[in-house]
Design brief:
The chain is α+β, with helices and mostly antiparallel strands. About 35% of the residues lie in helices and about 30% in strands. It folds into two domains: about 1-95; about 105-265, Jelly Rolls (Sandwich). Belongs to the tumor necrosis factor family.
């Protein structure tokens, strides 16, 4: 019986030792499985980030492709910059401001004051003489009331004439016997003529305007005629203005003037 009890205790001791041997590998395996778990989670996280980035890049590329397909004329934005660059290049070549030689041919002439015209009231048209000193000319000539074209091209021609009349009663009674001019039925006509060098300087009416005025002898009267148009002119052509009843012309340059400017070739 004692032997049997000793054998039983020995069996229990061997069983506990065997259990301890079986339990120790589990304790040693815990540190090994934990890094593996963390590594697996880290790899999965990296894969998820990579997949998200790949999807984002794919979507971005897709959107860009759609944008290009829906806007086939997008390269025009680059073409539109060429005029700006060309303008800058031209500015560098030509300078910031034009010199008088680069200005377009033009002229503006006011009426020459203190001109003596007959007061007989004749309707015959007379050429107006213009004031060079108080006007200006650029690459255009002038002689005896006529503008001379020095460069062929398309020009805009304009003219304005103002007529006025006021009966002046002098204080000297000796001049009261002078009969007044009849202005009750006065034709005030303005003509702009063009002499073509190709037609042997034959004058032709370029523009015409005016009116027949019924004015009062005892009050101040005024009438203005203005006109303008574009016309093709050749080098050597001339332009001039004729008016009827020139003795009624307003002598102030703000009211009566004549000019031309080249618009292009």
């Amino acid at each position: 019986m004692a032997a049997t009890h000793s054998e039983y205790r020995g069996y229990l001791r061997n069983d506990l030792e065997a259990g301890q041997h079986r339990f120790h590998p589990v304790q040693h395996s815990e540190p090994t499985y934990r890094p593996l778990l963390f590594g697996t989670l880290a790899v999965m996280g990296l894969l998820q980030v990579a997949s998200s980035v790949a999807i984002l890049l794919h979507l971005t590329g897709y959107l860009q492709e759609v944008d290009l397909s829906t806007a086939p004329h997008r390269p025009i934005e680059e073409v539109q910059t060429e005029p700006v660059l060309n303008a800058l290049r031209d500015t560098r070549k030509k300078g910031r401001c034009k010199t008088p030689k680069e200005s377009l041919p033009s002229a503006h002439l006011p009426i020459r004051a203190h001109q003596e015209y007959s007061k007989k009231g004749e309707p015959k048209a007379i050429t107006i003489d213009w004031d060079e000193e108080h006007g200006y000319r650029q690459r255009m000539g002038y002689q005896k009331g006529k503008l001379l074209v020095m460069e062929s091209g398309f020009y805009y021609i304009y003219a304005k004439t103002c007529f006025r009349y006021y009966k002046y009663i002098p204080e000297d009674s000796s001049q009261t016997g002078v009969p007044p001019v009849d202005v009750s039925n006065t034709q005030l006509i303005q003509y702009v003529y063009h002499e073509s060098i190709k037609q042997n300087s034959k004058a032709a009416v370029l523009m015409k305007t005016g009116s027949t005025m019924r004015w009062n002898n005892t009050s101040y009267n005024m009438y203005c005629a203005q006109q303008g148009r574009g016309v093709r002119l050749d080098e050597g052509d001339t332009l001039f203005v004729n008016v009827s009843n020139a003795w009624m012309l307003d002598p102030e340059g703000e009211g009566t003037y004549f000019g031309a400017i080249k618009l292009g070739n």
